[in-house]
Amino acid sequence: MDPQNLEYINQLLDKDVELREKIKDQVTEFDKKTRTLTGLLNKIHSTPPSQVPELVATVTPVLQSCKETTAALAELTPPNQFWRWKDMWSVSLRNAVFSAAFVEYLRSGGLLSLPRAAETLGIKDEWQDRFTLSAEDYLHALITMVNELSRLAVNSVTMGDFEQPLKISTFVKDLFAGFAMLNLKNDALRRRYDSLKYDIKKIEEVVYDVSLRKLAPVQTDNT
Amino acid sequence: MDPQNLEYINQLLDKDVELREKIKDQVTEFDKKTRTLTGLLNKIHSTPPSQVPELVATVTPVLQSCKETTAALAELTPPNQFWRWKDMWSVSLRNAVFSAAFVEYLRSGGLLSLPRAAETLGIKDEWQDRFTLSAEDYLHALITMVNELSRLAVNSVTMGDFEQPLKISTFVKDLFAGFAMLNLKNDALRRRYDSLKYDIKKIEEVVYDVSLRKLAPVQTDNT
Amino acid sequence: MDPQNLEYINQLLDKDVELREKIKDQVTEFDKKTRTLTGLLNKIHSTPPSQVPELVATVTPVLQSCKETTAALAELTPPNQFWRWKDMWSVSLRNAVFSAAFVEYLRSGGLLSLPRAAETLGIKDEWQDRFTLSAEDYLHALITMVNELSRLAVNSVTMGDFEQPLKISTFVKDLFAGFAMLNLKNDALRRRYDSLKYDIKKIEEVVYDVSLRKLAPVQTDNT
Amino acid sequence: MDPQNLEYINQLLDKDVELREKIKDQVTEFDKKTRTLTGLLNKIHSTPPSQVPELVATVTPVLQSCKETTAALAELTPPNQFWRWKDMWSVSLRNAVFSAAFVEYLRSGGLLSLPRAAETLGIKDEWQDRFTLSAEDYLHALITMVNELSRLAVNSVTMGDFEQPLKISTFVKDLFAGFAMLNLKNDALRRRYDSLKYDIKKIEEVVYDVSLRKLAPVQTDNT
Amino acid sequence: MDPQNLEYINQLLDKDVELREKIKDQVTEFDKKTRTLTGLLNKIHSTPPSQVPELVATVTPVLQSCKETTAALAELTPPNQFWRWKDMWSVSLRNAVFSAAFVEYLRSGGLLSLPRAAETLGIKDEWQDRFTLSAEDYLHALITMVNELSRLAVNSVTMGDFEQPLKISTFVKDLFAGFAMLNLKNDALRRRYDSLKYDIKKIEEVVYDVSLRKLAPVQTDNT
Amino acid sequence: MDPQNLEYINQLLDKDVELREKIKDQVTEFDKKTRTLTGLLNKIHSTPPSQVPELVATVTPVLQSCKETTAALAELTPPNQFWRWKDMWSVSLRNAVFSAAFVEYLRSGGLLSLPRAAETLGIKDEWQDRFTLSAEDYLHALITMVNELSRLAVNSVTMGDFEQPLKISTFVKDLFAGFAMLNLKNDALRRRYDSLKYDIKKIEEVVYDVSLRKLAPVQTDNT
Amino acid sequence: MSVVLSSRDSILEVFDHFRDELDDFHDRRERLIKCSRDVTNLSKKVIFLIHRSLTEGLGQSDERETSLRAVSRAKEKLKDVQNLFAGMREEVAGDRFWRHQRNVSPGLQEYIEALSLAHYLECQTLISYEEVQKSLSDADGTPYFPLPLDDYLLGLSDLTGELMRYAISSISRRGGRSKANEVCIFVRGCRADFEGLTPHFRELRKKQQVTSQSLEKIEDVAYAIAVRSSEYDLPPELLDDIVERTVAE
Amino acid sequence: MSVVLSSRDSILEVFDHFRDELDDFHDRRERLIKCSRDVTNLSKKVIFLIHRSLTEGLGQSDERETSLRAVSRAKEKLKDVQNLFAGMREEVAGDRFWRHQRNVSPGLQEYIEALSLAHYLECQTLISYEEVQKSLSDADGTPYFPLPLDDYLLGLSDLTGELMRYAISSISRRGGRSKANEVCIFVRGCRADFEGLTPHFRELRKKQQVTSQSLEKIEDVAYAIAVRSSEYDLPPELLDDIVERTVAE
Ligand SMILES: [Mn+2]
Ligand SMILES: [Mn+2]
């Protein structure tokens, strides 16, 4: 084999290892940020309604900072190789999208759409072949949000807020109806979608308890 | 292989085999003690609040007796080889630490610190490179304690004690906030940490049930 | 190979094949009976307390009929070969013992001992080297019973029987304490024993729900 | 979820299935062609040296026709998704490259370089992100060629051609030295590279036999 | 399930179970015969050319006796259900066809056609939908024959017969050319076809050894 | 559980643990001896024919010493429990039988029969229900011997002994014909028997190489 | 065709014939697999449609009415599936059905799952073997192909998973609360019926475990409902009214 | 630090400390894994270099000379590897070595494989434990870290695979023909020596199987050479000359 041919082939073989290292570093960064995000959002379960805007305010700058990471990953990924590397960051990306969507619910009570989610994280349309927000990742994030909302329904009552469970119930049922319109395959997404039923069941139980309590305070404190 | 080399290798090998046997014997002892400890502590789930101090009193001497075992193990382990052998006893050690920490919670409602846990089990600072209580083992023990506390929250209500779930809730959430600060890798500790969420959810639901029925004063935690 | 040697070996091989066939036939019979037993006992989950004695009465003759099968198997097994063939019938045997123990609980609320279980299935002491009830099989059967009892606790509540869960809770905790005293090695039995914890947790949660809502008298068991 | 968002997500989920079908059809085509190629080239093992050019001439148009298939595949693959789909056609592609390289050896005695191989199959540089000839596929094809050359060394002698084995020996050793310069990982390619040694061994045995026969016709025909 | 339906299902089931038993008995018979056949044919590897006709003569009556078995199986199989049950006997059938084809090669040096193979085993055209010789089974049998022929090529030389390898070489290459025409999918047949290459290589090496030493006339095959 | 029942079960469980330990110790001993045996016999592959008797002489006392181990195992095994424990020592036993059979071949060129194998290892008829040599273990040992003989055929030629392969070929073919007459079911033994074909092929190829080059007298075996 | 083939050409000639035969077989196989995949997808969509229709009905109309509307929509769509089976008729005529059974089987089972779910919602019973076979027959009652017993049973076994989903979502459905109990008893019966057949069908044995898990989940739902109703001791209708009013506020 | 932590803040304070400790550990672990990977890669390159050097020598010079040239090139490169180990010294000081042994182990074994191959080519013996430990020590003979017995043995076990490659390619090497036999005897000895140690090392047991396979392959090579030489009955040197002349023509 002539040396040039050889050199060329050897280069091709080596490049990938190096790239993987660099992406890994960015993912570690990304992971730290999403860890902070979920840590902050976890406080919602003991935050009274009045202080929610304050909590949301502390989350926003961290969400904002994710833009740098997505930009760095888009920069690193060679054109056309999105599908080759995406598994490395999809866990982090889903967590970031979950945070963005949860914040949106807390702020406006509405659902963050896929393009808006991408925008919030600074993902640009022109990165299409290097870094994009797939439907699958977006849907995973929404399911994570529902998991948290069922917990929030329970904890709101503990904190004396009897309206939140009703709002959550309506919001989640609507979202669930949306999922029911999708033609999901028998994959991880389908399994997690199936598990949503338990969250709905929990929320319904809370709504049930709250409704009956309101009208019929059957038992009185007897500690 | 030249005979001298073979001879040398066999010497090294024999020494290790013998040491392993001796450690194994001590671990069997250790294991018996921790089995007794967890057996005794399991009774907490049907012990009314008034009788807890009595139960704690039966546990203390067994805990005390673990000191002999840790000393024996420290004696056996060659200098600098702590990490080589620790897998042999770490299950037992974690159970012992769990017992010590659980007893502490039952006694004072507070968290046993790592140095105090080591002290309780008679682990000396100067054994550092032969027998020590690693952060990892300590954290595993705390997670085991949370698992038990979520059960205790449920069983306390059954026994008519509606204060305990609230205490547990505060304590566990504080602990969870601590865990959330750690950058856990994808290892056993991470998996067990993830499972904590289920315990917290369960505890939250107990608190919810109690609050809803006004069986205990409304919780006003707002950390 | 010389013909005599060959002939000899072939005889040995053929005899086993034939015996295996015969045992298989009996096991198929045995399997049918235990399938009927578990089928009948499965009805307990929708049987109101008042009709339990009736259900137990339908099970008894089938249990009785197992005696023929155990006798046939003891007859077939050559002296000394118990350990060679026992794997063929141990699943069926465990199911039969489970049925006997479950019936005993339903009838008297008590635990069927190993010798009594053997007696119920017509297993004679003098078969020792051909057919016997090993401790392992007996314990497996008890674990299966606990699995069913945790389901029964749930379904009793659905049928409006709030006493049953309390009885089950006491019985199972007692049994569990017994298991904790055995020296189980790390095998299938140990793994199943570990899984008992989930059943106990489930039962505790049922008792909790019942107690919380004052559907049954407060439990004051303090074993 | 709003219907537009839903529609959009559903589309994304469906598109892939269809594309996979289309690529499959092209691969079936490709496969047929490479089957014909290897079928024709298999004749080399019973073709006397004088008729080789003729055989090569029959192969060329089939090789030529592969250009249509590579063009079709490049057309189908969405920009940037090369890495997502390449596994579907890599077996066929390697066979085509093998054929091209083998033909080149038969024609000129030289090694077809990677860029020339791509060119022969009509693979364009500008398809980079949709269809390209990877170093890995090229190297697999060369190894397949060596496998065939060791057979050819044997069969040449049978056909009375004692020069071919010597030519093959030089060519393969050169190629092998080239492979030795690559930094291969422990993957399929490495394993196949390792197996090359057996081909070289076989070729050496032929060279050995031929050398000694030529100088010392020890045995004479004694059928 | 309503009892009528259950009854009906059980009827269908019983019929199948019974049929399966009967077929199994026939297959056991069939298997014994083909075992005898392959046992006899195995002797070919130490039979000098002159005694081959004698060996063939001992095989013929056993082959003949297979007709009873095929008739019994055709009798048992319900109309149109050939493909439902054939997996039960296809191993035996392939072995029988292999024996018939091998005998034919030994007798005439030619290839036994599929219809003749069917005829030899007494398979009637009118059984078409109950018992037939499928192309797949026939091809499997031919591959088994090639496996044996490569062994025979080696052993013939040991016995001093230098013509046989040349005959085998021509015959097998013709057969291989036939196989190469098929579009095999990734199934068992494909895997076995791939293994043919090793047999061919072995045969080529034998021919090489013989040619090199001029033990037989130079081969001038140039298809 | 009542204490008596518990005590009884614990006794049963403990007894087994203890016995297992004792058997394990003996098996470790047995294993050492068979390791020595195979180690010594492995030297055959580089031992010239003239020194074989000497090698055999070194093996005999070790074989002899196995009698103590079999006696110890027979002593330990409770009456009737042969089938319970035999898996613990069957690997060692097969290795010992292999050694005995290999030695017999090297000494006399003949096959050691099953009863003679048992006798060589000191296994007494009256131990029937505690320690015996099963047909299965004997046959496994013979297959291991064939594996070694095919290696020996190769290595004999390397050492310039061209007679040994011919002797091995005859011996192994005879043995193989014997195996073909056994009714082996589809189990481990059957799979290993199937693998014998590769050993026979290998031996045939060695005989071929030797015959082709007239390195030994033409073989005229026609079994 | 000569009986013994002694030249390369004669060999190639017969292999030419084999090639056609094998190609024919593989092509049919591909067509049937594709068709079975279409059947699977359509059937899955029917199942989704049913769940969706039941969800949509939430509180707006009477439970029975909601069910029947779901059933009628499903039946509409199931006709498309039945047409696909009718289209296979020729491909699997004669002895070909059993040759290709394994290729058709996944779709067939999914169809039976969807069909039996619609049937359950309509009649509260398990669809019978003959009813399924009839749905796979032409107007004269001639079957397109024989219905394999294992496909029938395996399809029914999957039904229990869908009923579990139905039971869980019933908790948020007006009047549906009593449904959970009904489904629980029904699935318990299915499991018992299947149990007797497991010795003969290995795959059913595996699915029985899934059925047992589904049953436990349904039991948990029935339990959750029972526990909550017991606490108040009001008629379920009234409870429903109260909840509805609160949510509507 | 208080012994019992009863406020959230005190808990967070100690966890802050745990975080630093765990991060420190993970970071060191990452560094060592990376370093071990570098060692593996460099060592693999040394092995390749040796095979390559032996191939290059083909027929041009005397066998012994070729080997020694390969060895001296290898030793040069092995120094780089040894420097990497020296660089790890601080990271694995005190009790840390055993904590991270598993992270260092893959590289260490590959290094031993390369080192022992060079050693074999130079001395025709198996490198001793002490020699390996010495190569991992500073100028004063103080070890960078203790050499685990299993890494030593597992590295040597892999050596047999490389010797198999060496033996197979020796068939095309002048004067190398006699090498195959030498290697065969040597590997047979290795296998026997390792056999006695397998009860104590599970991984070695698995590798023994690979060693046995390698041995059989080497035996086949020795056989192939023997068979061919026997046919002519000429001294190997002369056979080599004849082959060389023919190829050169
Ligand atoms: Mn389904
Ligand atoms: Mn290596």
Give a verbal description of the structure.
Chain A has 223 residues and is mostly helical. Chain A has a single domain (3-214), classed as Methane Monooxygenase Hydroxylase, Chain G, domain 1 (Up-down Bundle). In chain A, 74% of the residues lie in helices and 0% in strands. Chain A is built from eight helices and no strands. Chain G has 249 residues and is mainly alpha-helical. Chain G has eight helices and one strand. In chain G, α2 (63-88) packs antiparallel against α3 and α5 (149-170) runs antiparallel to α6. Chains E and G meet through α1, α3, β1, α5 and α6 of E and β1, α1, α3, α5 and α6 of G. One manganese (II) ion (MN) is lined by residues 113, 158, 161-162 of chain H.
Q: Could you tell me how far the N terminus lies from the C terminus of chain A, measured between alpha carbons in angstroms?
A: 88 Å
Q: What is the CATH third-level topology name of chain A?
A: Methane Monooxygenase Hydroxylase, Chain G, domain 1
Biggest sheet character of chain G: none
The CATH topology of the largest domain in chain G: Methane Monooxygenase Hydroxylase, Chain G, domain 1
Query: What is the CATH architecture term of the largest domain in chain G?
Result: Up-down Bundle
Structural class of chain A: mainly alpha
Distance between the termini of chain G: 87 Å
Query: How many helices of chain A in DSSP terms?
Result: 8
Runs of chain G in which pLDDT lies below 50 for 5 or more consecutive residues are: none
Largest pleated sheet of chain A: none
Tell me the count of domains of chain A: 1
Summarize the structure.
Chain A is an all-alpha fold.
Structure keywords:
heterooctamer, A: 223 residues, mainly alpha, Methane Monooxygenase Hydroxylase, Chain G, domain 1, 8 helices, 74% helix, elongated, disordered C terminus, G: 249 residues, 2 domains, binds manganese (II) ion
